[in-house]
From TrEMBL:
Gene Ontology process terms (BP): immune response
Keywords attached to this entry: Cytokine, Signal
Species the sequence originates in: Collichthys lucidus
Signal keyword on record: yes
Signal sequence, start to end: 1-27
Domain Chemokine interleukin-8-like, chain residue ranges per copy: 27-86
Name the record gives this protein: C-C motif chemokine 20
Organism phylogeny: Eukaryota, Metazoa, Chordata, Craniata, Vertebrata
Database matches in Pfam families: IL8
Amino acid sequence: MASGKACLLGVLCSLIVLSSFIDSTETASCCLRYRKRPVLCRRAVGYTIQTINTSCDIDAIIFHVRGSFVCADPSVSWTQRVKECLDQRRMNNAQILKEGTQSPTVSA
């Protein structure tokens, strides 16, 4: 019985160490500088908004481009254009999905 408790204690300690490692790696992935060249909307598949917090020193829009991430200054005009393009694309896709799930009405 004592060996079962020791094993359980070992597993719990391992989970605590692992969860703290995962938390630290999440906070380490933030933009430190901006890309100067614009990203094309057709290449971007999404974005994330980064705000200043304890581990990230700058506000940024992180564009998800196939195979990588691009950090952009949120105050620059091309960043706003690409963000609006992606928002519009998302709304269009949501509208298409909504229309596709509606059942057709039958008139008598």
